[in-house]
Protein 1
Amino acid sequence: MTLTPLNPALGGTFAPPVMEARRWLDGVVFPPERPLINVSQAAPVDSPPEGLRRAIAEAALNDPAAHLYGPVLGNSELRAEVAAQWSLAYGGEIAADQVAITQGCNQAFCAVTATLAGAGDEIILPTPWYFNHKMWLDMAGIKAVPLATGAGLLPDPAAAAALIGPRTRAIVLVSPNNPGGVEYPAALVRAFLELARARGIALILDETYRDFDAREGAPHDLFADPDWDDSFIHLYSFSKAYRLTGHRVGALITSRSRMAEVEKFLDTVAICPGQLGQIGALWGMRNLRDWVAGERAEILARRAAMETGFTALEGWKMLGCGAYFAYVEHPSALPSPEFARRLVREAGVLTLPGTMFMPETDPAGQRQLRIAFANIDRDGIATLMQRLASVTF
């Protein structure tokens, strides 16, 4: 049989890691007394609060416009709400027309990088990286340049500067980090902005997990810079704070001139973000401040349980922990992909190996795992520690 042509960039992109890991469950039976502990994906599994669900339901039943195309750049009220709340939270000035609503934060990343780089260009990603960022760059023919992180999984601006070449278009940071969990100090984020500005490239900061940052107040001062939009691009997701994963609602904040290019991308791939999800996000922003604070407190308590639990695990090493994730070194001589698959069969734990977050040439990934602990409570974390402690392979 003659195959139709395949885009080599897409064909050379690795398979979705979460879907690959789920296939490890095929044929495995988990007894009732030892059910699967799934720490492979960072996504809320519970429904949004009732008030938010009612707001969506009311719109679905009674608002005809909720079922029509909306503005390409998103609901004007939601854009204005983001601008107002972010301006207050970060001590800066953000206008509604500098905000776009997207079909999830992944689409925000795709849209922004499409305005910055084309095939053959380069974007710097600290490692371990968020695999969907790497996948999109591969699909687009953009070279992902790995920036190894040091102690505490913190990237070094000087090391990044040495990687900037004539085709470098941006540096991407994620804080709190996925997969590492670490929160980047404000001074470090500022140093990366100054580097990007000095070298004429963009700084993309993905703050999907900002609502679960352990620090009080603004995590950085970039929006307080009156010229922030010359180099800085901010990404956000409503999925985690308001449990809207299935509705796909994200946001990006950038300059007005770049927003005109973003609009071209979004109009082509989605026409507009989903109306009902945006209605839910707006209602959540206006009504769920205290509820989100409670969710944050619970996540921070689970983080503390993870940190305490790992201090008692012989041979294991925690490299980073925060927001939804712990990033750890395992004690086995097995490479992490094989170790992770055996954890499913022999410990009833599904997690992701570090090789899914690292270049193939980096041996560190063979010793590392990402544990997405946000979906298990403190009792579940205690059980997880017991199972990891029992591992002998």
Protein 2
Amino acid sequence: MKKIITVFFLSAAVAVQAQVKVLDHAIITTKTTIVSPEGADDNIAPPPPAAEGGEVRVMRFGGDGETKSVTTFKGGMIKTYTETDMSRTTVLRDNNKKMTTTLMEMMGKKTGFYTTDEDQQQMAKRMDSMMQSRSQTAASFNNGNQVSSTDIAYADETKKVAGINCKKAFIIATRKNGTKDSSVVWYATDFKLQGITSTGGMAGGFGNFGRTTALSGLDNLAGFPMQYEMKMNRGRKMIVEVTKINTEKEVADKEFEIPKDFEVKSMKDMQNGNGGPVFQTRIGGPGQ
């Protein structure tokens, strides 16, 4: 019986997938809310010392509270704009060139950096190595907590999100340590976005790099995720909800141009402190 049910789910997903349109342009407004349990430890470890004459800036994404972002895309170009009380961040993603450019307006300064997918992979490896060197116990816990596989179960429940009819699904994650947990997703059944798995969440200032904390399995969903919740470490919870989507308005090419008043450098140069600050990244809020 178990095998028959599994085949049914797969067949249903394939049938739905065949009817989904892939849109090549849209403007999406998304709200991301991160909530910590009462009494959570908000202590932040001090950043490492900078090289002589250098400067260290801690870039933290995913702190408690509500963040709104606007994602504009056309073909292989994607722009995500996020504004907080202290900063404005624009992430420009070129899927064709596999390059991400991040522009930041902070404390009156307009700076930016660009990085390739290959650079991001190398950065991720270095961060993993640093985490393992900090504590073998913590490294063992983190490795066991990683998602090894996901399954999707579709439900008959429906509701409207941002005026769009959505259906309910459960994404069931199996971790390397054998534990399982599920997340509720409400998804639009009749469209997906070209080159975009989801909006909002932890895209933060690093484009794809920030997606390391996105909900696993969204790319296999039979439609576009309009609302979902996911568990984070230290008992926190992230709620992502699309509040507005416009698929009719034409998107001009100039939307993806880099303003001339931004000083943009390679991420490698900025990490090495060559003519710029050393960046320490913390994704996921305090204590990361």
Protein 3
Amino acid sequence: MTTPLHPVSRRRLLGLGLGAAAGLALAGCGDDDAGPSTAGNGGKDYTGPKVSLNLWNGFTGGDGDIFKKLVDQFNAEHANIALTVATYKWEDYYAKLPGAVSSGNGPDIAVMHMDQLATFAARKVIQPVDDVAGALGLTESDFAATVWKGGMYGGKRYGIPLDMHPVGLYYNKALFKQAGLDPQKPPADRAEMEAALTALKGAGIQGFWISPFQFTGGMTGYSLIYQFGGSLYNDDATKAAFNSDPAVEAVSWLAKLVADGHSPANVGQDADYLALKSGKNAFNVNGIWQVNDLKKSPDVQWGVAPVPQIGTKKAVWANSHNFTVVQQKKTDANKVAGAKVFINWLSQHSLDWAAGGQVPARRSVLDDPKFGELKEVGTLAAELPDAAFPPAVPGVGDVTALFYTAFNEAILGKKPVKQALDDGVAKADKLLEDNRKKYGS
């Protein structure tokens, strides 16, 4: 379960855990307070009897290797805590977790994306970790505000942020040279991008393959909607907004690249990234996690840069991994205390985690000179002030999936852009209303 079918498949649902809320039943475990908040001392240390803990995650690629090394280090340093890791593809992970918890076979610790926290908190699958934040001395000033607030639900904290992962612009330097472009100067704005695409087309190269799938065309479209001044939702995520004039303009710009021959008309899943590696595609907007994969391909001449500003402002899709403590049918205070020790420990070792191709969530780590040595990761870390994180409301992953479906229809030409987005918003608003009834918010 830890080996991906190919380098990018492990990430197909990383961004939003699509389908996580579909058919999700109440976990039905623990009390209404979702577990004790006094087990241990918030992760500062653990002096109780030896406990065995299970941790679930979706780190199936190179980041998984780094993660397992860190777990081994933790186990070596903590004789009274034995941590075992289970790794699943994200799409399986979110579907599997609620049933496992309900049957009493869930993990003790779960890694979860920021936009999934509210869903699983509402379903009492995870329990509050306010005391861990207190033990670490963490406050909003330590993080990007959206990431810190994204861990809250119902006035309680359910997630401790581990990292942030934006998308960036990967480019093929060999194709730049072939088209007479400077391989040290990737495009930074719309004019430069369009000029580069014209030069590439003149050299017989379709320079920017636009995938109709979430990975990664949909995430490109998501980024550009915010760049053009739009958003996927209104301020409190009670209404969808991805059919606004700015959203239509953003998606139309990408659709026109296909119409103008800068991209094949029907790009397969992951084909945009594979074409970049094989020297057929000059540009690919993809996640920061691809840095380590490309480093495994020494024959590929590549670079990475922030996503160009195509619209009126800078903006880029990003998400965040969080640690959570899972609710159990019968609470074991020692296990809860041990789980919090691990979360505390790894949060303090997030610079080591950055080697897995993630941006540490804590500002203090970002300022560490050692982080500056991670050149490619640092390049994309610079985007984070402009990050457009998904909203942290229950069930939002399934709603955002409707945007990706609408984007797919628009890019494939199944519907005019405006109609595709209008149809998607109508469905999204209905689902948002259903979610408010389902989750009581």
Protein 4
Amino acid sequence: MSVWEEIIGQPDAVALLRAAAAGGTAERAGSMTHAWLITGPPGSGRSNLAYAFAAALLSDSVDGDADTRAQVAARSHPDLTALVTSAMTIKIDDVRETVRRSYYAPSVSRYRVVVVEDADRMAERTSNTLLKALEEPPAETVWILCAPSETDLLPTIRSRVRSVRLRTPSVADVADLLNTRDGIDPATAEQAARLAQSHIGMARRLATDSQARERREETLRAALGVHDVSAAVLMAARLVEIAGDDAKAYTGARDEAERERVLRSLGVDPGGTIPPALRAQLRDLEADQKRRAKRGVIDGVDRILTDLLSLYRDILMTQLGRTDDTINVELLDGIRAAAAEGTPELTLHTMDAIHGARRRVEGNVAPTLALEAMLISAIR
């Protein structure tokens, strides 16, 4: 099995990185460089491609050997450093530690590889800490940054990396991946890929979690029923509640497993008394989990807004006489009714309001207030 097999819909990017991992070809002489930036829309597979490239660089084979693939998947390879955050921003201390580790010589591979997921979550001061490492990197260290777009990073960082741009994979490609990799039946795989708008991670979740599908459908059906201000206010509160439930379902099991793993590493039996000297470490873990939970709610609200955009996109296309590529086929009757009640101009206004709500929520405006304003503007 090749490390590249699960990278779907990105043939040009795979060809470029595969050639770089192989040391370049006659046509691509000098294609390898010390720093890369993988950009693309959410769900396009930025992180998946970054770790596939890492596995190829850390292996003797450009397709990656089985042991290296397993170690990279577990983030346990001795020459791999992964900087990941589920908080709002990447901490400067975490970047400093990652930079320090980047100067270690490889222990078993040709390279030391550093993957920075969500590099766009760095504040300017934090980015400048990373910049120093990119300016004078060790010859055996390769940095792989991931971000939605080049403009999300400082110009000084963009000038020191080689960019690889990804595109949104097709629904058919994502459905085929869910079918072959995860064993999802074709009908469910197609529905999940379509509703997720080709977002690979969200498609997998929708395909494997019936409650996630039910929460999504409840959200859109409720949005179709908003016809006055009081309904908009109630709906905003319910959407935030749904986002919180979604976040808990996604992170709850992981948080509990993480706590149990930390307790075992500290020598504390399940259900046992935690010695006072160890309680500070657990408080740090709980603080990290609270920050992750906050980010989870924000991400959940953003997913809801993305789903609402798909709904109003379907309404607009219906108003314009196009129903051949409807995303939310299961809600077609409600979409047609909403299209008949409004105009394309009003629908476009609502879609602009949804984009505005996303910007406000990302800018730390209270999600309930941002959603209330958006829903009120959507009243037909």
